[in-house]
Amino acid sequence: MEKVILFGASGQQGSVIAQQLIEKGYKVIAPVRYQTNVESLNHKRIETRLTDFTTASLTNIIKEADKVILQVPVVITPAQMIEFVENALKAIAQAGSPHTVFSISSVVPIEFIGLNGPDARLKMKELTKQILPSAIILSSTLYLENFSQAYRQAIEQGGVIPQAIPTDIPVAYLSFSDLAMYILAALEKLELKGQFIPIGGSEALTGIELSKKLGVVLGKYIHYQGITSQELTAFLTPMIGEQTALQVAEMYEWEGTTGGSLLNPDVKKALQLFGITLPDFDTWAKSAFKKIK
Fold first, then answer.
1. How many CB atoms lie within 10 A of CB 111?
2. Which of 2, 43, 100, 147 shows its CA 20 to 30 Å from the CA of 263?
3. What residue segments make up the domains of the chain, in order of their start?
4. Closest CA to 54 of 75, 76, 78, 83
5. Coiled-coil region(s) at which residues (predicted)?
6. 114 Cβ partners below 8 Å, 6+ apart?
7. Is the pLDDT of residue 291 over 70?
8. Within 13 Å and on the Cβ side, how many CA atoms surround 281?
């Protein structure tokens, strides 16, 4: 049984990835900072190792692994993201460079643009190329779970999708399950080592297309409402805190303007590289919103 170190196993994305790993027969080991995470992860058949996430602390943990999945916490500052990734990459390298898949979980600018959030993503990509050049880097678009979770009440009660991406920009939204499928495929695709691969969902949808499709699934009229970054910050702050909300809004503001083309990558190419097939939007929506249909 191969052992996989999974960073971020206690988060929503990590939980989905962990379950797919376990179903495939992997033993999952999660580095965690707090004892409070241990019991809940162990209950999900995930082994845990306590760490302070310094390079020295992580190195011995990673030495146990055959493979590594690196993810970055969302609820930390861009500077902390960079430090987190640099420590982890150095630990992976010092542990013998086991096959690593790094999921950045957002699009990455081609060059530095003077915004902390997007620039941190590019810096993490560059650090990976420098410290662990064999890693596969996955850069994803936006997540469908935003609609079934953060925006669910607005969709349910108001028939509105409040989104900071202009309505005419096509976005290849993907689900956490889609992401997990990409990651598991990347664990096996050793021939893709060292590649940076943009990924997304099976369909690229504009705001109008998204609202129409979701409306059909829910049996009601849904309106896609463009909002400003300030409105998005105010909307998200009660759920994730002001600091994280500001960071998310900054990313959306960039993605909704100069970064918009990155939200519609060559998904067909990515699917061919990894040899996987993703469900369409309707299949996801029927499952995610089945309680309110």
1. 7
2. 100
3. 3-134
4. 83
5. none
6. none
7. no
8. 22
Q: Which amino acid is at 133?
A: P
Backbone angles phi, psi at 18, to 5 degrees: -60, -45
CB 229, CB 221: distance < 8 Å: no
C-alpha span between 25 and 135 (Å, rounded): 22
CATH pick for 3-134 out of 3.40.50.2000, 3.40.50.1820, 3.40.50.720, 3.30.70.360 = 3.40.50.720
Q: Which two tokens stand for residue 134?
A: 């064999």
Q: CB neighbours (10 Å) of residue 190?
A: 11
Q: Does the structure show a pLDDT above 50 at 293?
A: no
Give the DSSP letter string of the chain. --EEEETTTTSHHHHHHHHHHHHTTPEEEEEES-THHHHHHHHTT-EEEE----HHHHHHHHTT-SEEEEE--SSS-HHHHHHHHHHHHHHHHHTT--EEEEE--S---SS--S-HHHHHHHHHHHHHHHH-TT-EEEEE--BTHIIIIITHHIIIII-EEEESS-TTS-B--B-HHHHHHHHHHHHH-GGGTT-EEEE--S--B-HHHHHHHHHHHHTS--EEEE--HHHHHHHHHHHH-HHHHHHHHHHHHHHTTTTGGGGS--HHHHHHHHT-----HHHHHHHHTTTT-
Q: By mean pLDDT, which of 74-83, 126-135, 141-150, 190-199 is the weakest?
A: 74-83
Residue 145 φ/ψ region, left for φ over 0, alpha for ψ in the -120 to 50 degree band, beta for the rest? alpha
CA atoms within 13 A on the CB side of 17: 30
Amino acid sitting at position 11: G
pLDDT in the model for residue 148? 95
